[in-house]
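Example 9 (inverse folding). The structure is encoded as follows.
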């Protein structure tokens, strides 16, 4: 399995940590935000999930799939079903903390996300698992692999790398747009979409963000199911990576990195540091932007199936 050549640095690429190249990140100031929902506060959170096992026919080693920022297990329903069918392996699609049906917590960083998922593996007695993660989920599975290489058989990291890199400016704009929607007290998805449009120009992105919009009760204005203020404050953490020294910590099992050809998140300059943390890594380029799984599900599935069948 080989990476397609890609030698040019995309415009607006994330800036690397100075340990690797250089890091420039402008602090983002967010106004105070009132919130009345109660929050969980413990070492780990019990995660909501959907199990896809092809009607009980998928009985092999488990696969966990972790979504990205503002996503949920719903986003991975189709690919989870396809992988369970094609690989005869049960697929657990998770909701990470502060997303989907999982509990909200003021702490949101990769160590906390990793601990939650590690607890999930233990709770469900899942052995020899493959960990798949996109974006935020990708850094989570990388963190898990480096924290405890015995927690999994292998990992698949989708469009992210083990580096400190400032998030693109798109994400603070999305947050501001979602805040405007909630402040307006909208009564329809159409009204919410109109408010969000200046902050997220692409319709598929707005549709993705609006999957989080729910009506708490009859005739009540729509609210976002995710705690927007917590995730806004966590944006800096989500650009970071908790491991800094690949000479001290490595994952010596197989790892697949899948990157979108039109995405700036895994540029060629990052490949050496990937190889130092994950010396047995392979890389595949998929024709897509950052949203690899939704933009090109067939190419993504093919890369995953080939990688995992090579492991057998």
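The amino acid assigned to each position is listed next.
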């Amino acid at each position: 399995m080989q990476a397609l050549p890609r030698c040019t640095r995309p415009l607006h690429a994330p800036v690397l940590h100075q340990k690797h190249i250089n890091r420039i990140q402008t602090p983002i100031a967010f106004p105070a935000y009132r919130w009345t929902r109660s929050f969980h506060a413990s070492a780990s959170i019990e995660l909501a999930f959907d199990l896809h096992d092809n009607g009980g026919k998928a009985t092999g080693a488990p696969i966990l799939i972790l979504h990205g920022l503002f996503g949920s297990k719903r986003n991975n329903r189709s690919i989870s079903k396809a992988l369970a069918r094609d690989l005869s392996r049960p697929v657990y699609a998770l909701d990470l903390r502060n997303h989907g049906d999982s509990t909200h917590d003021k702490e949101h960083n990769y160590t906390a996300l990793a601990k939650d998922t590690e607890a999930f593996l233990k709770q469900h007695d899942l052995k020899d698992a493959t960990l798949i993660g996109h974006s935020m989920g990708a850094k989570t599975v990388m963190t898990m692999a480096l924290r405890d290489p015995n927690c999994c058989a292998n990992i698949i990291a989708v469009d992210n790398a083990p580096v400190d890199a400032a998030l693109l400016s798109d994400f603070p704009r999305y947050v501001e747009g979602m805040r405007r929607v909630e402040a307006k007290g909208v009564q329809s998805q159409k009204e919410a979409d109109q408010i969000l449009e200046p902050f997220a120009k692409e319709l598929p992105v707005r549709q993705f963000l609006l999957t989080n919009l729910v009506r708490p009760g009859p005739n009540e204005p729509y609210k976002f199911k995710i705690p927007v203020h917590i995730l806004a404050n966590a944006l800096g953490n989500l650009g970071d990576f908790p491991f800094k020294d690949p000479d001290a910590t490595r994952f010596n099992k197989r790892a697949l990195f899948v990157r979108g050809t039109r995405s700036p998140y895994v540029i060629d300059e990052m490949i050496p540091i990937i190889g130092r943390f994950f010396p047995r890594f392979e890389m595949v380029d998929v024709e897509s932007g950052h949203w690899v799984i939704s933009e090109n599900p067939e190419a993504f599935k093919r890369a995953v199936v080939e990688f995992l069948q090579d492991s057998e």
